[in-house]
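Input sequence (416 aa), recorded before submission:
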Amino acid sequence: MEYFQIASILIMLSAAFGYINIRFLKLPTTIGLMVITIIFSLLILTLGLFDDTLLTHEKEFIAKIDFSELLLDVMLSFMLFAGALHTNFSQLKIQRKPVFSFAVFSTLISTFLVGIIMHLILKMIGLNVEFIYCLLFGALISPTDPIAVLGILKKANAPKKLETKIVGESLFNDGVGVVVFLTIYRIADLGLDQVSTLDVIRLFAQEVIGGMVLGTFIGYTTYKLMKSIDDYDVEVIITIAAVMGGTLFAHYLHLSAPLAMVTAGLIVGNDTMRQSAMSEIVELYVDKFWELIDILLNTILFVMIGLEILVLSFEGKFVLAGLLAIPTLLIIRYLSLLLPIKYFKKKLDFVPNTNLVMTWGGLRGGISIALALSLTDAMHKELFLVITYIVVVFSILVQGLTVGKLITKLNKKNAL
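Predicted structure, token format:
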């Protein structure tokens, strides 16, 4: 009953805040929900100065939610499958090399650069944190969120080539980022002397390559099953089974569930598979079902992010570290994208200012917070959780609200 109560409260809050946003604020859904939830949380904190009854109840409610497990083990697979299902596969196929470079090479470069610079920044402000834990922070903050920016890119009429790069990179670097984080987490937990280079390579290859192989198998099996019948009810259920069963198998085999679901979603959703496996009515129902799942889970996710403010320890040095992390991460993201963009620019005719838009449009989201919550106290959980929260809020509220205007302005400039 407790799980039902938690889900009910989250969905009721999501519905109420979503209504307020659509009726009055008219902001993009993810941004509007976060704004309203943060305001709601700040009001509770203010009321707590006079009577802490409501604040205590809210903190107890949030403590019951295992944000990290809920997002990483349950919600993420559904959201990534839904995102991949609606990704332009033909464009992604053309852009596969730069997308792969951004997702793997740029994520790794970002992880190490963030770890090095944040280690120096924290030392400068009087916080002595071991380098390995700063590296862990680099791994959890480097993945970008495809959900928060996708709707904004479409409204701003971003060129399809650019939209594919940003969304494709985000879909895959979520999976890669989680694998990098888990690898560094294992080193930090066991100690560097207990983990060999071969162990690291084996773990990374198993998770990444194994996850994509499993996803290919699940996607192709789902396609064959859907092709052999014509019943939209059963075919929608088959896609749900593919996500839930695939996630279970991935966890059991110690493979990357996010990468498996992205791969499966791309296979089921690509145009060739759709035309041969789905009738018009089936395609309509499958698309609408997964759009609704995507919207519902993201609505809940951003409400949960907003509520997290109630349980954070906003110490002065923690906040200062978070504020210093914002420009640091933007500069490092720009640098980490530079080499792949330079290399592929002439071959694939990149849109002008691709690096600038991908830097400002590379929003951080719930995955970073979930990974930060999975840290132990010995890994400076409170410090990195506050830094991550500040970065995510800035990313979604400031970058999210202005990236559309940036794209529109650059479109006009390039047209001239």
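Checked by second reader. The chain has one domain: 66-415.
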